[in-house]
User: Which sequence fits this backbone?
């Protein structure tokens, strides 16, 4: 028999014969009593399990508690990487890339997003931290360490015999109660000094106190320029231009109520400064159209070639004449401008700028009230805006152009520093401060910082847990214990004893007859003081999103009871080799 036929015979006929024989044996031994029937069922189940094992022979499998233990280990390892950055006395991390370049930062989400992580549970926690950063611009480290603590406490409950479904249900009950309690103890700013204090708290530990105060003022000034604007939570990233300047120190950073870009006018013969005028913005270019496919044209006479160039100049002249008829003084385009057009624009008294980014064009359109058009031949008087001033200045040997507009709604922040790493870290701190300041303008409710909120919620949940009649009580108490990871980490990073600090803080809140929830930990002296008097605040939206995100991430991991790791990638069978054999 040919070898291929023999293989087909072995693959098709023999397994069928074996199953038939096994079935015959089971049938021959089948009897009315239950003992022999149960043996038959066991044989059949064993056969099914062996078939599953063959199907997963190229896959590593973690099932049940082993899968949960593995996932919790990954979460704990990830949280340990950023735990020491929490709080005003947190430490920095040095991130070294493959090429040798290093980044020094205290920002938790920067550390997590830069790290090379392969475990899927760890990547889930990184996604949760990134979501916290997008939504609140603060609380990223808190979210990760809180998720890790929730998972560790859940693992202890599972080892005690509590089912993960009950733990998840208890965590959801605890979360709803905690969010309601946070709403109850929160309050709006009592005076104008408390909102800057909340912004300064969000960047404490990332920069020193003097720089933090300066960045707080810049963030509030930039956020004030966007007050009353509609555009969602990400409006400050779209309307605020960050520009890193080598000259000067960090305290020389400033907010410019206009648009500053490292650009110079196209034709140096035109004027560098202007006191105002009309502006046109083109979301395209003023160049001769190019063919989208390869083609060649044979020109047999100089007159024909001259005709081509003359028609191109006529098209450019028509566009420039249209802009001149609309009394345009300043032209800004996203793409290029032909050399012929540049000369025509200068002769018409129009100053031109080219190669602007789309986001910069949107900011320029916002402050000048102009509308971006795709084609210069279709621009109308309604699309023309006005600018109040234009000037050019050199920073670090590079010419920059500043354009101010009467409409407002967009600013430029000039961030200075002595080195690239310092400027980058200051930029990250400013982004967090600006995000918090912008969101506080919409929701100004605040909570106490210094671990006060977490200790109060832990005490409240422990008193609330007996209201549940089932094992959810255990999950609620585990949730309460997990909240204490925040003040515990703050104490550790400040060189204080975490157990003593938690006990003393809980006792101080219990002994207070009025607003005990606002008593927190002074990480410098270790004393227990009113956080509103110390000027340490946490915005409600930051704490709300961090707690909800951490609970959702922990429950997502608890739902997993089977992890399958593929040993190798899927491969296409080599049928030709089989046929040759």
Assistant:
């Amino acid at each position: 028999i040919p070898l291929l036929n023999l293989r087909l015979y072995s693959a098709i006929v023999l397994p069928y014969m074996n199953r038939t024989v096994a079935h015959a044996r089971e049938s021959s031994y089948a009897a009315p009593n239950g003992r022999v029937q149960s043996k038959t069922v066991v044989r059949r189940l064993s056969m099914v399990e062996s078939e599953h094992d063959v199907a997963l022979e190229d896959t590593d499998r973690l099932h049940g508690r082993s899968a949960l233990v593995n996932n919790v280990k990954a979460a704990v390892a990830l949280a340990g990487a950023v735990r020491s950055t929490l709080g005003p006395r947190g430490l920095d991390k040095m991130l070294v890339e493959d090429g040798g370049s290093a980044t020094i930062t205290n920002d938790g989400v920067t550390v997590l997003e830069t790290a090379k992580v392969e475990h899927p549970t760890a990547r889930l926690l990184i996604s949760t931290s990134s979501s916290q950063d997008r939504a609140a611009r603060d609380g990223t480290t808190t979210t990760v360490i809180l998720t890790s603590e929730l998972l560790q406490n859940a693992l202890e409950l599972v080892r005690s015999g509590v089912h993960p479904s009950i733990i998840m249900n208890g965590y959801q009950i605890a979360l709803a109660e905690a969010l309601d309690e946070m709403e109850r103890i929160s309050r709006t700013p009592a005076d104008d000094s408390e909102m800057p204090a909340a912004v300064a708290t969000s960047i404490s530990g990332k920069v020193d106190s003097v720089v933090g105060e300066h960045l707080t003022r810049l963030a509030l000034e930039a956020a004030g320029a966007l007050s009353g604007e509609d555009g969602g939570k990400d409006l400050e990233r779209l309307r605020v231009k960050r520009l890193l300047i080598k000259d000067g120190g960090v305290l020389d950073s400033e907010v410019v109520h206009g648009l500053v870009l490292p650009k110079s006018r196209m034709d140096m013969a035109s004027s560098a400064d202007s006191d105002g005028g009309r502006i046109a913005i083109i979301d395209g270019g003023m160049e001769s159209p190019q063919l989208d496919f390869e083609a060649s044209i044979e020109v047999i006479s100089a007159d024909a070639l001259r005709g081509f160039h003359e028609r191109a100049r006529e098209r450019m002249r028509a566009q420039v004449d249209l802009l001149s008829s609309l009394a345009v003084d300043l032209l800004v385009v996203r793409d290029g401008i032909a050399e012929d057009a540049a000369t025509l624009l200068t002769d018409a008294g129009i100053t031109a700028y080219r190669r602007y980014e789309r986001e910069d064009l949107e900011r320029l359109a916002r402050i000048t009230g102009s509308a971006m058009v795709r084609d210069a031949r279709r621009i109308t008087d309604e699309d023309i805006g006005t600018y109040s001033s234009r000037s050019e200045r050199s920073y670090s040997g590079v010419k920059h152009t500043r354009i101010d507009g009467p409409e407002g709604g967009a600013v430029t922040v000039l961030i200075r520093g002595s080195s690239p790493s310092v400027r980058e870290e200051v930029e990250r701190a400013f982004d967090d401060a600006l995000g918090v300041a912008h969101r506080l303008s919409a929701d100004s409710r605040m909570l106490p910082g210094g671990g006060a909120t977490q200790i109060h919620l832990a005490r409240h949940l422990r008193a609330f847990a007996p209201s549940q009649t089932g094992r959810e009580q255990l999950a609620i108490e585990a949730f309460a214990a997990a909240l204490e990871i925040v003040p515990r980490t703050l104490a550790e990073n400040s060189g204080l004893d975490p157990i003593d600090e938690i006990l003393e803080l809980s006792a101080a809140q219990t002994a207070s007859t009025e607003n005990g929830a606002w008593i927190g930990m002074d990480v410098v002296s270790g004393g227990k003081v009113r956080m509103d008097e110390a000027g340490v605040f946490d915005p409600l939206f930051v704490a709300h999103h961090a707690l909800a995100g951490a609970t959702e991430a922990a429950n997502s991991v608890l739902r997993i009871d089977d992890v399958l790791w593929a040993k190798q990638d899927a491969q296409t069978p080599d049928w030709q080799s089989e046929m040759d054999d």
Summary: Confidence is low (pLDDT under 50) at residues 1-49. The CA atoms of residues 141 and 472 lie 27 Å apart. The longest strand covers residues 389-395. The radius of gyration is 34 Å.
